[in-house]
Amino acid sequence: MVFSVFEITRHLRQVIESSIEPLYVEGEVSNFVHHSSGHMYFNLKDEFSTLRCTFFKNQNYRLDFQPKDGQSVVCYGQITLYEKGGSYNLNVSTMSPSGLGDMQAKFEALKKKLQAEGLFEEERKQALPRYPETIGIITSPTGAALQDITNVLSRRYPIQAWVYPANVQGSEAPKNLIQGLRYFNEEFPVDLIILTRGGGSQEDLFCFNDEKLARAIAASKIPVISAVGHEIDFTISDFVADLRAPTPSAAAEIAVLSREDLLNYLRSLAERMALSASNSLGIYKHQLSEQALEFARYHPERLWQKYQQRFDMATMALDNVKHSLREPQIAFERSEQSFFTSIQRFSELRVQRYQDRLERAQDFLELYSRRSIDKLVSRLELKQQHLEMISPDYLLKQGWALVIKEGKIMRSIKDIDPGDGLTIKLRDGEANVEVKETT
Question: What CATH number labels 105-257?
Fold first, then answer.
């Protein structure tokens, strides 16, 4: 059998791709070209060999540095065969400056170790509380992550949020983060913990890949949400936490319900309670109606009509012998009077008993409905008070200030330039200032 060149090349490509898993390759960049299509083409070389590489646009758009010739890098990708040229090639998925490759290797090794121990299993993770009353936030007190979280909480739900200030970058950060977890578990218990920081480079986020920190998160008796970096960033903390949020703002939205959703739920609950009370009252009314029908069978008027007929017949018989039977007639009239008195007394007692039962049922339903509604109103007022405690006006009273430029609140020094006119809003007034220098 004779094969074409294409068939041989295609077969070799299938063999290479099926037998060689994606891998990390370290080398020096040479002949780097960033094509107008967005794709990157270059070689990785060392003192012994050269490897052709392709970094497609849909992968390299996340690159946070510009590769250049002579730069040492670590690439992760799949070895394949370029059929047209008959040469093997590395299709790159990620690239980092040399040195970050060690960090990635450590990350993968720790991830594999903890996964084998079961620390990432969903079965061991705790469910988040549906209605938390207190939240502990472990993060930098000056970072944008804290501002994002407090903004979302103040908008969605009146809740107490306590901050444990910690380093979120550098060699001391894991120790600080672990201390924060212990603080909220042992010294100042809360319902939920958010471990967070904003975006950054792989080196910036690497403190969240610490093994001791991962084990502290797993040992936490309080549910932990990990919200580190941006949506594309993943750390060991994300895998071991009870829930990973893609951003700090998303963590706040996951942690609490919307205040409007809660109010709607309370309104629905009140409506269901009122309907239940109405249904119960209807049942009691139906039972009373049935008792009334039963009572009608023994109504004194019906009994009177029956005995009136007998009385009339007896009267006619007695009229014939009234002169000779005067004494028996008197005895009969006395018996008749006693009988009617007994019937009337029995009927009145039975009617009174059913009326008493109906009044007690109505009193119970009114008391139960009033207490339930009062309890719901009290809870709603308490939540409203909590919301007011974290409002901007309250923060101003505590010594905070708002910096406003052209009607917008400034959140970063990057948004302010020399010469800008600013309004600084304090607790008791405002001050208009001009920026002379930013640092």
Answer: 3.40.50.261
